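Q: Focus on the chain.
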Amino acid sequence: MKINTFSDKPLPVRKLMNYRHSRRISQSVSADLRMGNILICVLGFFLLTILLYCGHAQDSLLIIEPNWSTLFTGESVTFICDMREGKDTDWYYRMNKDGRECLHNNTNKNYTLQPLDTDHSGEYQCFGHHKVSTYLIKESNKVYLTVSAQRPKAEQGADRRDFPAGGNVTLSCSVNLSSGWKYFWYRGEKTSEPLNTQDAVFISDGQISVSQGGLYWCRGGRGDPVYYTEDSDAVVTNRAVVTLQPNWPEIYSGETITLRCDIENGGDTEWEYEWKTSSSDKPQKANDFIIRSASSSHSGEYRCLGRMTSGKSSTEWSDAFTLTLSDNRPQSVLTVSPSWLSPGASVTLSCRVKDPSAGWRFFWFKAVPKLSDYYNDQELLPGSSNGTEQDSYIVYGQTHTAGYKCRAGRGDPVYYTYYSEPKFVWSGDFHPAASLTVSPDRVQHFTEEPVSLSCEGNSTKWRVRRFSKFGSLTHCSSWGTMTGSTCNTNRPQYTDGVFWCESETGQFSNAVNITRQSSDLILVSPVRPVAEGDSVTLGCQMNTKNFLSIVYFFKNGKLIQNDTRKELTIPAVSKSDEGFYKCEGKYSPQGQLSRSSPESWMSVKSPESSPFPVLLIVGLVCGVLLIILLLLFLHRCRKSKDSCFISRSQSTNQSSATDHMINQDETQHKKYSSPLHDDARLYESIKGPEETENDESNEVTYSLIELKNIAKKGSSSPAAADETVYSEVKPGTVTGKNAAII
């Protein structure tokens, strides 16, 4: 067999043949490689199928409930391992943490950790082992659990911190860490219950709207049981207000006042205070700013705010309070009623101050003359040492001229107004300790006519005072000359008014009303009240020597007399004669020219009470006492064995009684003689001997004893009958115990 070789071939042929041979070998190797790759792919697919069948495919799912990014110590978390095949009870569950088994063959797919701790942080994966096909194992995805040891704090905000009139404030609450929070709102103390829909409007889970000022705070909560965040800082929606105590409309220099920073609805929260003021005096950091003896330097605007001592929250600055002080001490004004006293009338004092309702108490004084100067001292009236709330005071029993003052006070210590000007009530009656007489003794005087005012009484020093019709109070030196106890007018045109005397011993005299008249005709009338029953004569006097042919007298504007007499006589004055009188006169009955006097008041007083009624009452009382003593004497006499004895007849069951006459020993009559008249009778109740002291029998015997004049010792009696005591004894029955019939 011949073997073909390449050596016997030409060179080009040999190269071509070698190329073809190499190509065939290369193609054969490529085919083998392709077959190997296919086999490897088939084997890999087979192995993958076996692996999936054996349960190592990641088709199970591990989830966390609640699925929050960060959990906190104290919360709870549940791992849920879902095999997504068959029933949950077909599997055993195993849990790995950070690659290490932490739960083995658990029959429940849920695994709860409670309470969480920072050690629970890590990577978790669960595995499922089929209970029947034990070679079937599933593994879950991996989850990471983060547990923080720091409890989160809620944050609260407000769109504004002071309430407009009738407005609302919107509050918001949030927790920046993690999610799932619900928010709880509180007002006031942290022990209070959360707000509900009655307390606020819930805009959203993290926003509410409130309409009441106060201290608000919030916190977040989530989970079951609820895990709470730390409380937020409080938001103060309270309103700071500056108030004045006492809150009087006007404050005067020298008063004590208090400016107070009040936190509306502040509750029991502890606050620190800050003040801002435009005055020169800066308040301390306290809610009360006490100003003692206030002055103009304290005037200005005051603002304040409150800051919680337990936190950084504070109120807004309050509205400005303007304090204005008056440098003028107020003046009290006194009025009295009536001005002229009448018997039995009381005197009402009224004191007025500007802003009378602004905390004033009223102090009442009686004016006391002080001759060393032009003013009066004063003494407190009873019951006004601490002042009275009422601005009026009633004086009872004032019968003579008196002066009064008042002033008002308020605050602690008390700030007083000025004393009022003294006001007087006048009496026209003479006072034994001080009296005033006028010469000439009449009310109306001609303009240039001199008048003398004389003071009398138990004092050596006097002054005469005048209250003019214009309300001014002056002394004699203003319109006259004081000589001893008499004031002589030297400026007659200024002597209209009411006049009285004041002594150095503090007494006021009666008062008189004097008027100066520029007319030619005056009415002559008494300056003092006329007593009822007395006679009085009113006259009509000319300033010239002209003769009046006819005179008219008027009372209260009505004509009461018209004839040629220049006098009007009332023989017995009564209270009805009191009134205003005047006179008119004509030079001739047919003449048209006439003159008229001014009117003057004539006062009528009740006559002084007689001491006779008092004596009568005293006599009656003494008589009654004597009778009682005499009855007691006779009672003792009856019980004494040596005293007056009344014999009784021996009575039987008869219905009538026998009268007995009993003689007494003459010496006994002399010893117990009575000053009574012959017809004087005494009635005595007499019991029989069979009646005991406590006897309750209704049987009573009555005795009529008639006393006769008994002769004095040593005198003889013409008959024994003149010296005996007669007793008429009548038995009877009465309805009351120990009753007596006279």
